[in-house]
Amino acid sequence: MAKLFVPYYITRRLYSGGGGITARKYVLTKYFKGEPKISDFQVIEEKLPDLKEGEILTEAEYLSVDPYMRAYMIGYKLPTDMIGGQVAKIIASRNKNYPVGKYVVGSFGWRTHTVCDPKVPEKLGFIPITLLPDIDPHPRSLGLGVLGMPGNTAHFGLKEICRPKPGETIAITGAAGAVGSHVGQIGKMLGCKVIGFAGSDEKCQYLKKELGFDHAFNYKSANIRQALKEGAPQRIDCYFDNVGGEISTAIMNHMNKNGRVAVCGSVSSYNDEKLPKVTILQPAIVFKELVVEGFLVNRWVDRWNEGITANLKLLNEGKLKYQEKVYHGFDNMVDALVGMLQGENTGKAIVKVK
Amino acid sequence: MAKLFVPYYITRRLYSGGGGITARKYVLTKYFKGEPKISDFQVIEEKLPDLKEGEILTEAEYLSVDPYMRAYMIGYKLPTDMIGGQVAKIIASRNKNYPVGKYVVGSFGWRTHTVCDPKVPEKLGFIPITLLPDIDPHPRSLGLGVLGMPGNTAHFGLKEICRPKPGETIAITGAAGAVGSHVGQIGKMLGCKVIGFAGSDEKCQYLKKELGFDHAFNYKSANIRQALKEGAPQRIDCYFDNVGGEISTAIMNHMNKNGRVAVCGSVSSYNDEKLPKVTILQPAIVFKELVVEGFLVNRWVDRWNEGITANLKLLNEGKLKYQEKVYHGFDNMVDALVGMLQGENTGKAIVKVK
Questions:
Q1: What DSSP string runs through B235-271?
Q2: DSSP 8-state secondary structure symbol assigned to residue B125
Q3: What's A271's domain CATH number?
Q4: Do B244 and A280 make contact, defined as CB atoms within 8 angstroms?
Q5: Does B190 lie in the same domain as B99?
Q6: Residues B258 and B165 both lie in one domain
Q7: Which domain holds residue B113?
Q8: Interface test with chain A among B173, B255, B286, by most A beta carbons within 10 Å
Q9: What is the pLDDT of residues A22-37, one digit of tens each?
């Protein structure tokens, strides 16, 4: 389970060192209980080493907050550096492929400055450190969204796990989030009918009016079974599940025979101390002969650039829309994480470091 | 959902007629609520027609009671003939491939006599009507067990959905039932470690001593998490799920990355009026990247004989053991169904008509 993101001991090997610069970083010292709290962390300073041949020194511009962060930390021994993606500027370099002034996307964690050899994570099977392409006039933070891990999660998860055919109906929960809103747009481009579930009327309007979803329902106020009848009279062929919970059982019970479910996350239960109970899935799975498959995006590390390139092409053609919820300040990482888990964001939640 | 077993309107077209003989049959007139009851049925007489060219007249020797019967009837409009498999003797024939005195296995439902054209079900995509091979000294009732639908469910479900590799660990719930006990034996032949969960200490002893299961636990008395630690220290690679329920969540949480789950049934909830709630599966599915696939055995109707032949070979080589719980009398069908649902049987539950 730890393989998707660089764990502590490897973090140390990869990224620590020294070198005149002092980094600030978040160290998790208590496992989350309920919502993450600032008191679960210590923010400490760390002297970075001089660069060795092949290494670069980066300064974080944007940090990512993602649902997986709430679920993953239980897998690490404490204390541990907090995990997470960054868009960072190269401010010193002894690697000619990574010149000063360029930006990289890397899983450096919640820290301001990093020393690393950009080739190492990929060699170890982790998400690679990539140079951010020139995406002007779009913000560089897209390297954490449609052009990064969430973008690849949407691209590969929908195409490889759900395998939708034109004319089929796709349901998406967490539909206004970074991954869900991207999945829906790809679904429409593939010629599918797309039904989204999100947490506010405003989000639903955005999905329908801006992103072209056929239907969007506020799961907090809608009668889910009624919404499914109304939005998917031909029932559901593909379900992209970001949330788990009771709504997922209802959706699976509204699926067609041989439907495919991509289980991307279970955010509805991440803050619970004990996993909640919901109506069992097995009757739907067996009688409809569903395939319910969980996936982590690092499954496609070998094809990482294929996803980024596909999404960049869509972005450049104006076919891929995005929205960001930008939090500000390195000191506000926990607030950003909590806000994202509460659904404050439409699209990708990120933190601008300065 | 109705495709696995011949529904009412097709039953009429296929099997009804007339011809001097009077059949007795069970007609379901009320949907089951909780345990099936005799008052949910009417047992009526039906005059059968004369045989047309290609048709046969059969007399039931053994009737099957299977878990699916409890779950399926909700899919039919009432009143409807009760569905189910039979081993039946051909007592009149206008089809030279099906001579008088031979026995067939067919999905004729709960009825004593049947007129049918044996080629029709297969043409329509239903489980075929097959001649029972000579299996002396074994009882003909095996046509409803290891040499019939449950046998093919075990053969194809394990091999095609779980795809176990030698050395892997397979968990099975409902392990002492017709399908589960068969799955475990195939698992052992494939070089796997096999862990079964069943409903009594006696069943567990049978699984270990007679069928060669590595471990068997009484799910009614065991601490499931402790049992999994003890029985599967290398965790579970394949799970053959016959029961659903909380135990299935516990097992999926004890699986290895990229584990495969064949969802064959959900018998733990069949008698419930409202589907029960259990701890959600999604966290295990996503973080372990499990594939959870439901299946109905009619998926392999085109390969039906391949499964029967494979199981017959194992039986003839003495590699496949079986046990039967035989109920007696056409009037006791409901008692047999209820008893099987309560877990009275080890191995296959059948009813000897006379």
A1: -EEEEEESS-HHHHHHHHTTEEEEEEEEE---GGGTT
A2: T
A3: 3.40.50.720
A4: yes
A5: no
A6: yes
A7: 2-127+323-352
A8: B286
A9: 999 999 999 999 999 9
